[in-house]
TrEMBL record:
The keyword Membrane applies. It is found in: Cell outer membrane. Keywords: Cell outer membrane, Membrane, Signal. Residues 360-448 form the RagB/SusD domain. The keyword Flavoprotein does not apply. It holds the Pfam family SusD_RagB. Its main location: membrane. This is SusD family. It comes from the Bacteria. GO terms for cellular component: cell outer membrane. Belongs to the SusD family. Residues 1-22 form the signal peptide.
Length: 470
């Protein structure tokens, strides 16, 4: 069990970092010390995941987007880490440092998950304020986070299944403390990830599906608002969109199955998310395209987001004219010439001469969405069902799925007429570039499909750090 001193320090750190988000979990008088320890341990893992070495920058708008050539490298100084990364110079000392931090921070997060899983497994239901429901929730979220950490290490340090050579690239660590490690090939790692997610889904279902489905509605899930009688009395259970909730885990399973080339299983998971509802009201949808200016990240469509309160100030330098590294892009190259697409409007992108940058992370502190780093969203689920349909030669369903997202973004007249799987995949890549800009998924799509035409000398497998301490 973590010490009382560390608990207090952890708790104060969280209060300083987030005065109005789900991390502000001020304990009631009824929460016992052990329960607070476990809550803070869980919150600490989310903070690790949102650090700059991971989704706070490198796995969202930063390093991984540079690798996917989402930005124009000519607006980065040739000596900068990001420019060298855009040329896939993985042997460069600066690039090596970023890659090494992905590995070490990933396994550090996994160690924290394993410690928490061990602690919660040893605790009884009466050790928790909300008894079995809370025990299951913390246990399930920790398992899901462990799976996410492993999956992102797999996506970066191992080949895709399209290029799989059967070699062992990484360990799957599920014990604390670590005594020894065994390296596994892709197939075995993916099976372990799948098993963790299935177990996690079953555990959190008690809260999110059986007892409190109303907490998954957008206003409660993202902003802890709604009808008072339906809101959780304890803020620890609010903001389920900032946590590995049941549908976020289901969506992550869909993403994992796509990587695994289990397309029908991915489709089934994606459909469960799309169709999730309470009474006749769906949990997830798209904000009206006319409202994107006020809700740039489309909170209605977010399944899981991380919170980083310093996001705007950390992202802004990459948009400044005088910066050494600018995340600028050719708007026509990404958004084509659509006059309807609100993602290309002045509400979403800003001109810097003849080029543009995304305003997605330039939301003023205190405004809705300002701290959100979207990790999983509804549009990806539509892309998954579209790809499954295309792979079964159902191009009408594939077109309808892509058109659903396009229509939500203002492209009411957009239609697709696919004639082959390759034709569909070409269009899918274009849509992901538009929809998920700054969210770190483009490079992984290229890698999953083994598409190398977007960049000369592209490298899809990171060099394993020389110091592999985990």
């Amino acid at each position: 069990m973590i010490t009382r001193k560390n608990t207090i320090l952890s708790f104060l750190t969280m209060l300083l970092m987030s005065s109005c988000s789900w991390l502000d979990v001020a304990p009631s008088n009824e929460v016992n010390e052990d329960d607070l320890d476990l809550r803070n341990a869980l919150n600490g893992i989310y903070l690790k995941l949102g650090a700059t070495a991971l989704y706070g920058s490198n796995l969202s708008y930063g390093f991984i987007e540079v690798l996917g050539h989402q930005y124009l490298p000519e607006y980065m100084e040739t000596t900068s880490t990001y420019y060298k990364a855009s040329e896939f110079k993985y042997d460069d000392a600066d690039v090596k440092s970023v890659i090494s931090n992905l590995w070490s921070n990933g396994y550090n997060g996994i160690a924290s998950c394993n410690h928490l899983i061990q602690m919660v497994s040893e605790a009884g239901p009466t050790d928790f304020q909300e008894l079995e429901m809370e025990k299951n929730l913390i246990h399930g979220e920790a398992l899901a986070l462990r799976a996410l950490f492993h999956f992102d290490i797999l996506r970066t340090f191992a080949p895709s299944m399209e290029a799989d050579d059967g070699k062992a690239y990484m360990p799957y660590v599920d014990l604390y403390p670590v005594i020894s490690t065994t390296y596994y090939p892709n197939v075995e790692i993916l099976k372990k990830i799948e098993n963790d997610l299935i177990k996690a889904r079953d555990l959190v279902a008690m809260c999110d599906v059986k007892e409190h489905p109303e907490w998954m509605e957008t206003q409660c899930r993202m902003f802890a608002k709604g009808i008072n009688s339906e809101l959780p009395k304890d803020v620890f259970f609010a903001y389920r969109g900032y946590r590995m909730n049941y549908y976020a885990i289901t969506a992550l399973l869909a993403r994992v199955y796509m990587w695994e080339k289990e397309y029908k299983k991915a489709y089934d998971m994606a459909m469960e998310v799309i169709e999730a509802k309470i009474d006749d009201s769906k949990f997830f949808g798209f904000v009206e395209h006319t409202s994107l200016k006020e809700d740039m990240k489309d909170s209605e469509s977010i399944l899981f987001t991380l919170s980083r309160v310093t996001l705007e100030e950390e992202y802004r330098p990459y948009t400044d004219t005088n910066s050494k590294t600018r995340f600028w892009f050719n708007k026509t190259d990404i958004f084509e010439d659509s006059q309807e697409d609100k993602r290309a409007s002045s509400a979403m992108v800003e001109a810097a001469g003849d080029v543009y940058y995304s305003k997605k992370y330039l939301i003023a502190e205190g405004t809705n969405d300002y701290d959100m780093i979207p990790i999983l969203r509804l549009s990806e689920m539509y892309y998954i069902i579209a790809e499954y349909a295309a792979r079964t030669n159902d191009f009408t369903t594939a077109a309808n799925a892509l058109e659903t997202v396009c229509s939500a973004r203002g492209m009411i007249s957009k239609t697709f007429n696919f004639v082959s799987l390759e034709n569909f995949l070409d269009e899918l890549v274009k849509e992901v570039r538009k929809e998920l800009i700054g969210e770190g998924q483009l490079y992984f799509l290229y890698k999953r499909l083994d598409r190398k035409s977007f960049a000369d000398d592209v490298k899809f497998v990171f060099d394993r750090p020389e110091n592999e301490d985990i």
